[in-house]
Amino acid sequence: MKALEGVRILDFTHVQSGPTCTQLLAWFGADVIKIERPGTGDITRGQLQDIPKVDSLYFTMLNHNKRSITLDTKNPTGKEVLERLIKECDVLVENFGPGVLDRMGFPWEKISRLNPRMIVASIKGFGPGPYEDCKVYENVAQCTGGAASTTGFRDGPPLVTGAQIGDSGTGLHLALGIVAALYHRTHSGRGQRVTCAMQDGVLNLSRVKLRDQQRLARGPLKEYSQFGEGVPFGAAVPRAGNDSGGGQPGRILKCKGWEQDPDAYIYFITQAPVWEKICDIIGEPTWKTDPEYATPPARLTKLNAIFARIEQWTMTKTKFEVMNICNAVDIPVGPILSMKEIAEDQSLRATGTVVEVDHPTRGKYLSVGNPIKLSDSPTKVERSPLLGEHTEEILRDVLRFDPGRISEIQQSGAVGVPPAIAAE
Ligand code: CAO
């Protein structure tokens, strides 16, 4: 039995943040029923399409293991169907723009009246306050959550990161809130609202920078490279390039082949406990005892020179050679892996973190599987649904409508026409 078997999710999510959350719940065994607008469905089905008229990878990679029903929730019959679904489900998850659910005629009070055990989980861009009515996408959240102002190089503009910390990060936060509320319901017998703002989610992931903001009031941040370089600090936490957030000096260094390969680099950390081993590996044994280099405070003003010397060594090796040599003596390093290398990595395939999925109209494609592994509830990644693929099945099996009622609903225009599914 799967961890969340028996939990039914009414999935009103779209684009990336909400679908990340409901996909995780589906991977843990919940029955996720995705409601989509007839005709178009989740907008990402058609975004960044690499094969004409085929659900995009953007959509398929965020909507595995779900069922899809098309439903016009502004149509009176559609509203009746939605009411029935609310009574049959445990959790409603949505990431509509602010106020959409209320305008649809389904505010929290009504949902709670229809089903007092229902948990309503929402992602919005901002929490209550001056920006609560704003629509928000990934990079807006990265900028307003403190990540962009602390990412990048000191002498360059703020940078966003490729990791989708605003969307997927908030989806992860919401999933935890839902599971906590489900557990709470086992005692209280009641549902509750779970909300997560993308700004808050990003700030949570940028927590160490708010730590540094407060430390800055008590003096310069000595572990930041600019301290060693004698560059004064301003009023706010600066961008720190590739310095590590944990206080151990670290840099990204070139490796053999960097002239041709944009990913021939490695993250190298001069952690104090392994300093002597580093000195031996790079051929500077005297630095182990030389008072100018032997202690972390003595090294702070010489980090540029130290990393230049380490890089002289890393440039004679491939990033994988550096990885093997250093890890043999417990020096942690991080080769910069390209997406191509990750896609081809057999150990990630073996653990199901990278999976090959078959899709009736797309064929085979790669996806990221469930990064969270439960020993008694392993994840099997199933393809994403076609638009409205399960409409009839859900009306019949979940809502227990008879054929006559199903036909009435279909004629009312509340549900779309199911797709012709190619033989799988
Ligand atoms: N049937 C009928 N109408 C439907 C429907 C359905 N099944 N599903 C959605 N709609 C309607 C809504 O009722 C809404 O109509 P009104 O504006 O008339 O009330 C309309 O679709 C638009 O919904 P929306 O505001 O959620 O969508 P948008 O494309 O305008 O905005 C987004 C998209 C993501 C900016 C917005 O949803 C948002 O801010 N969400 C919260 C933050 C978030 O999750 N952002 C990350 C998205 S991933 O980068």
Short overview:
This protein has 424 residues and is α/β, with parallel strands linked by helices.
Task: Summarize the structure in words.
- The structure is a single chain.
- With 424 residues, the chain is of the alpha/beta class.
- Helices cover 36% and strands 13% of the residues.
- It has 18 helices and eleven strands.
- Strands 3-2-1-4-5-6 form a six-stranded parallel sheet, sandwiched between helices. The protein has a three-stranded antiparallel sheet with strand order 7-8-9, with helices on one face. It has a two-stranded antiparallel ribbon with strand order 10-11.
- β10 and β11 form a beta hairpin.
- It is elongated, with a radius of gyration of 26 Å.
- The two termini are 26 Å apart.
- The model has no long low-confidence stretch (mean pLDDT 96).
- Oxidized coenzyme A binds next to α1, α4 and β5.
